[in-house]
Amino acid sequence: MRIVVKVGTSTLAYPTGCPDIRHMEILVKTLSDLKNAGHEIVLVSSGAIGMGVGRLSLKGRPEDMPTKQAAASVGQCELMYMYDKLFGEYNHIVGQILLTGDDFTNENRKNNFENTILRLIEFGAIPVVNENDTIATDEISVGENDTLAALVACSVDADLLILLSDIDGLYTKDPHKYSDAKLIPLVMELTPEIQELAEGEGSGLGTGGMITKLHAAEIAMRHGFDMVIANGARPRRLYNIVEGESVGTRFLGREKKPGKETAL
Ligand code: GLU
């Protein structure tokens, strides 16, 4: 299977922006093992801004663009250093790909990026994708990595997209507020009722939330592959997800149509 795994800042870093070494180690070990088992892995990783906040000892997620971009510049190095080191322990090679929204709308740039990522996969490397936050202004950015991961999954014609977040999946109510909230294991269709469940903001250092995850699900389902939302605090469950077991919330892709589409 060709699997795109997106991991959010809340899984990779503590609220201070320091890397969560335990999560990162288990995540990389599990992905390395899945790769050894024959799966092709693409990792879409957030955490650049968050880890930059940690490295530069900033007080919180920056509001202004230059500080955000400077933090991303520092944090992206930290991220790739960690991935290179950890995947290297299992003899896997990583390649960094930084994209903006433009790279999906401009046909030429899209072709270039797709050629690169497909060649990396062919070489057996693990592409590590993020938004190019140092140059992406609001007008040209995708804006968050849930949608970015779905677009990347379309580009590589993935079989499965997994979004690892700080929540177990989609609930019938906000589980932070209501103790009787129930996890929804399977979504076959994005009805208005399902869309209504996606209220609330993401965590402190990241940008996602359930709204962006449902947007990603819409792209995945339309393109014909499944998407799963699961908790990044338990990366070993990736094995169960790949086996098709019920973990988190699975959004069923509709029957695959031939040919690709631009999904923005
Ligand atoms: N590209 C951002 C970062 O690396 C993350 C965006 C997101 O959390 O969705 O910090």
From TrEMBL:
SUPFAM superfamilies: Carbamate kinase-like. Pathway: Amino-acid biosynthesis; L-proline biosynthesis; L-glutamate 5-semialdehyde from L-glutamate: step 1/2. Substrate binds at residues 46, 133, 145. It is found in: Cytoplasm. One of its GO terms (molecular function) is ATP binding. The gene is proB. NCBIfam families: proB (TIGR01027). ATP binds at residues 6, 165-166, 207-213. Its main location: cytoplasm. It is an enzyme of class 2 (transferase). This is Glutamate 5-kinase. Keywords: Amino-acid biosynthesis, ATP-binding, Cytoplasm, Kinase, Nucleotide-binding, Proline biosynthesis, Transferase. One of its GO terms (cellular component) is cytosol. One of its GO terms (biological process) is L-proline biosynthetic process.
